[in-house]
Every structure is written in structure tokens, then in C-alpha cells.
Write a structure and sequence with these properties.
This protein is of the alpha/beta class and 361 residues long. The chain has one domain: D-Maltodextrin-Binding Protein, domain 2 (3-Layer(aba) Sandwich), CATH 3.40.190.170. It contains 14 helices and 9 strands. Strands 1, 2, 3, 4, 5, 6, 7, 8 and 9 form a 9-stranded mixed β-sheet that branches. Strand 5, helix 7 and strand 6 form a beta-alpha-beta unit. Helix 2 runs antiparallel to helix 11, helix 5 crosses helix 6 and helix 5 crosses helix 14. The two termini are 19 Å apart.
């Protein structure tokens, strides 16, 4: 069972339907909203090939729902062809494929896989910072994109249109029990980015294989554990091999970014551009929360049925882990300082925005 500190967040309910009142009486009759053009052989829909590295998770369900909502809001003027599980392009190539138009939309863990292209955004890879409220984390990250010019520039210079970033609480699933910091010593863990440095510091060995190679690595016994996310642990059946799960999150990682080809976006009529941006900004986080909430109990039951033991860190042990990883923040601050950027301000603003959007318990 999830730690009491986190469990309410996993099962939170979404609300936020706002009622609009129409002005009546002496007010002038409102002008009817213009309807989108009726599709005819002369007015054909804009079709986007949409690539994704995965399939069947709460994230991919949310992405599909968002794309279908765009189709609905545009009156069918935009359509999406989905290519799931790397069937069109591989994860490491996704960003470039969208840029050149092999796919017109999609995403991958680009901040994770291409840290040199997103040095400022690496604040989203730091552990033991914000909490596990997924919609709050997504809204905070998107507002950072909107309000910090250096963060916006870093996204925009990729040559694709940024849509949104997806975050999820990071946990460890393993073939060996991990109850304390010392248990990380000698552990072979799939981990990348800053968290890999932390494992190395604590005596572990980090493997940089992609997430989509983990199942085979666990089956062959070439790794003992992986950093990941409950929905992905479940989707990739890591629980078939790993019988221990540290259910206390060690972070809330920006693990997936969604984009649309810039030429495609620029050719959209202005109303479609607006629909595309607003749907990805507002509707997508709602769908992420909806499907995450629906799936958590199923995932936890599958773990229990597979004999997976859930390990909760004590508050004292959690503090030890957090303190041991503090050097990662210092490394980020130093790297940003060399670039003339206030890394402390970026991280503190991120944490404050998270608190602003966090569901109050």
C-alpha cells in the first residue's frame, strides 16, 4: 500500500467544471459563435501522424483523449493517426523525427534522453523537490515555460512547437529489498540523468539503457532494479521480475514532453492554433489525473497478486536520502551560474508554483 503521506494524492478526485451564466434581459442578443467549415471534398481535414514511445498507460490514454478532444473542438478539421510503442520512430529519435516531419506530432522523454539540449530544464530531473501531485506539477512546469524567458527559449529553439510536459512520482522497483540508503550499494540500477549520479555516489551502478529495454534486462539479470513510475512498472510487467517496490516517491520527474511539427502548427488557421494550445495546456492535465486515478488500484492489486512487497521509507530514512542527494541541486546551481542563470530562483519558483496548484488535503 502507498505511504500515507502520498496515497491521498494518487487517489485524488478531479473537479473544476465552471458554470457560465448568460446575460439576459435588456442586454443585446449575443452573436452566434461562428461554426467551423463543413468538411467537403474541397475542405479536407489536416491529418497528423502522431508517434509515441509507449502504449496502454494512463499517459498514452490521456494523450489520445486530448488529441480526440482537439478533433471534436475543431469540428473534424484536424485528425490524428496514432503510431504507438515506437512503431513509427524510436524514442531517442522522436524529437528529430517530429522536427523534420517524419511525424507531425508526438513525444518522448526528451529532457531525460537529451540533457545537453535542455540544460536549464534539468531542474525537472532533480529529486526530493516537489511532491507527487501530478496535475499540480504539470501546471507548475507549464507556467515556468510561460514566465521564464530562458526556459521558453530553450524549448522553442528545438524547432518544434512545445505542447506540454508530463510528470509522475518516481519510485524504485527491484529484485532485492531496499529499506535503507546502504542497500543501494552494489545495486545495478537503470537510471539516467542526475539520479544516476546519486546512485553512483551511494555505491550503486547506473545503467543508461532506455526505459523500453528494462524488461529484457531484468529478465536476463543484467540489472537489479530500475527507477520508474507505478504506471510504467505495471505496463512493462516489471513486477514479474521485481518483488520489492519502494513506494515512497523520491521525486516527481518531468519524464515526457509532447510536441507538434512547427511547420504544421504554423499552417494551422488561427482558431485551430488556439484550440491546440489551450487543449494541451488545460485538458491534458485533467485527463492525466483522471486516468491515473482510475488505474492506481488496478496497478497496486497486480503488484499484490504478484507477491510484490511494498516498502515505505520512514521519515528519518527519507530525510537521509534527501540529504544525500542535496549535491545534485548544488551541481545544477553551479552549472546555471556559469551560464549566467539563477538556478536557485528557477527551482524555488518551481516549488512555489507547485504549492500554488497542489490539491489541498
Amino acid at each position: 500500500m502507498l505511504s500515507k503521506r502520498w496515497s491521498s494524492v494518487w487517489l485524488m478526485a478531479l473537479c473544476g467544471i465552471v458554470a457560465l451564466a448568460l446575460v439576459v434581459g435588456c442586454a443585446p442578443k449575443p452573436v452566434p459563435e461562428a461554426k467551423p467549415p463543413i468538411l467537403t471534398p474541397e475542405v479536407k481535414p489536416i491529418v497528423l501522424k502522431w508517434c509515441d514511445t509507449s502504449v496502454g498507460s494512463s499517459r498514452t490514454r490521456a494523450i489520445e483523449a486530448t488529441c480526440l478532444e482537439i478533433e471534436k473542438r475543431t469540428g473534424g478539421r484536424v485528425k490524428h493517426e496514432f503510431y504507438w510503442a515506437g512503431s513509427l520512430v524510436k524514442a531517442m529519435d522522436s524529437l528529430e523525427a517530429i522536427k523534420v516531419g517524419t511525424a507531425q506530432g508526438g513525444g518522448a522523454p526528451d529532457i531525460v534522453y537529451h540533457p545537453a539540449q535542455f540544460p536549464i530544464w534539468q531542474f525537472g530531473m532533480l529529486q526530493f523537490t516537489i511532491g507527487p501531485d501530478i496535475p499540480a506539477a504539470m501546471k507548475a512546469a507549464y507556467e515556468m515555460y510561460q514566465t521564464f524567458p530562458e526556459l521558453k527559449d530553450e524549448m522553442d529553439k528545438q524547432g518544434v512547437k512545445f505542447l506540454n510536459t508530463y510528470l509522475y512520482p518516481t519510485t524504485i522497483i527491484s529484485t532485492k529489498p531496499i529499506n535503507k540508503l546502504e542497500d543501494l550499494k552494489g545495486l545495478r540500477v537503470r537510471a539516467v540523468g542526475s539520479i544516476a549520479k546519486w546512485f553512483a555516489k551511494e555505491g550503486g551502478t547506473a545503467s543508461g539503457i532506455t526505459f523500453y529495454e528494462v524488461t529484457e534486462a531484468l529478465a536476463r539479470g543484467t540489472i537489479d532494479a530500475t527507477i520508474g513510475y507505478l504506471y510504467a512498472h505495471y505496463a512493462y510487467k516489471f513486477h514479474d521480475y521485481c518483488k520489492y517496490w519502494v513506494s515512497t516517491p523520491i521525486g516527481n520527474t518531468q519524464i515526457f514532453q509532447s510536441w507538434v511539427n512547427l511547420d504544421t502548427f504554423n499552417k494551422f488557421p488561427e482558431d485551430i492554433k488556439k484550440i491546440y494550445v489551450e487543449t494541451w495546456r488545460d485538458f491534458y492535465p485533467e485527463m492525466v489525473a483522471k486516468y491515473t486515478e482510475e488505474e492506481v488500484n488496478i496497478q497496486l492489486k497486480a503488484f499484490k497478486d504478484a507477491g510484490v512487497k511494498s516498502i515505505e521509507l520512514t521519515p528519518e530514512e527519507y530525510t537521509r536520502w534527501k540529504d544525500s542527494a542535496a549535491f545534485l541541486n548544488d551541481d545544477y546551481y553551479a552549472a546555471m551560474s556559469k551560464a549566467g542563470i539563477d538556478g536557485k530562483k528557477i527551482l524555488s519558483s518551481y516549488e512555489e508554483l507547485y504549492k500554488k496548484y497542489e490539491t489541498k488535503k
